[in-house]
Amino acid sequence: MNFNLSEEHLMIRDAARDFTQSELLPGVIERDDKQEFPAQQIKQLGELGFMGMMVSPEYGGSGMDTLSYVLAMEEFSKVDASASVVVSVNNSLVCWGLETFGSEEQKQKYLPRLASGEIIGAFCLSEPEAGSDATSQATTAIDMGDHYLLNGTKNWITNGSTCEVALVIAQTDRDKGHRGINALIVEKGMDGFIVGKKEDKLGIRGSDTHTLLFNDVKVPKENRIGEDGFGFKFAMKTLSGGRIGIAAQALGIAQGALDLALAYSKERTTFGKPIHDHQAIAFKLADMEMKIEQARMLVYKAAWLKDQGMPYDKESAMAKLAASEAAMWVTTEAVQVHGGYGFVKEYHVERLMRDAKITQIYEGTSEIQRIVISRDLIKNS
User: Fold this and answer.
1) Residues tagged active-site
2) Residue 91, Cβ neighbours under 10 Å: how many?
3) Is residue 2 part of a domain?
4) 296 occurs within a structural domain
């Protein structure tokens, strides 16, 4: 068993770290405050190959493994989770889903532009009445012969107004239940594709979260991913890999908070000594480090299993659950270490605490992760 990163992995991590410090850190507080999408930074990330990290070079991607993607996500998320979620959705939901399950024509048409960051994609599963219960799709895609007629509403959609391509999960045959669900590639310019309201969020405020409406959108049959009725399987398998990206995001948020708390504990003095010399603070730092390292092992293992072509559904769920719970706990403690300074935006940790919360909710809540883990455990015991 080797816990050392390869030279290539270290280079990717360091490149992501350098970009984070030089391009993401400046202005991150202002972007959060103004809910400003990091358009320039996302463009640069595309030029550097970070928007299609796992896409084959054949389709214009970087051809990297999942662990490389995790390392980059962790670095970006230490400072700017709003930018990293754009990277995550484009990489592990949109690009991976298309490359793994799309037709050759679909891959040739969409992947080069998505992988280069020329355009970005969105993944549309959640609805007003169908979040965790993904089988209860109210959005319909009626088979009209040579096309589907798409109607419905999707909400909480990351990259909602900035995407050019959306992968939309919709019900074609309600009598077949989850086997009657399809996944469709919908382009921004199609008639009836409407961008609804932008959400005013607690965290990841720089990301672009919108409601999307589809009103009699004619989607060509060739835009269906996989066989008829494959949509639910497509969504579940794609989300299983996506959870590794969100786990890495949560890990980065937690590590970023610890880095700030540790630095502050060396600068701040009370009762004549640095606060890290007080056992109350030292023990907080120790617990933060332990929880982060526990989560890191699970995240890296899930990525490794995916790269080996081995089953990873349970492990990705465990990684996301552990990392998101750690992120929420660590960021809250980091604010506490900062005291009053932690409560103001200038010191960054309050933003990390707000950003951490969503990692327990999107791409499967912590409760859903526990369902996935327990079912796998019982089935294979």
Assistant:
1) 363
2) 29
3) no
4) yes
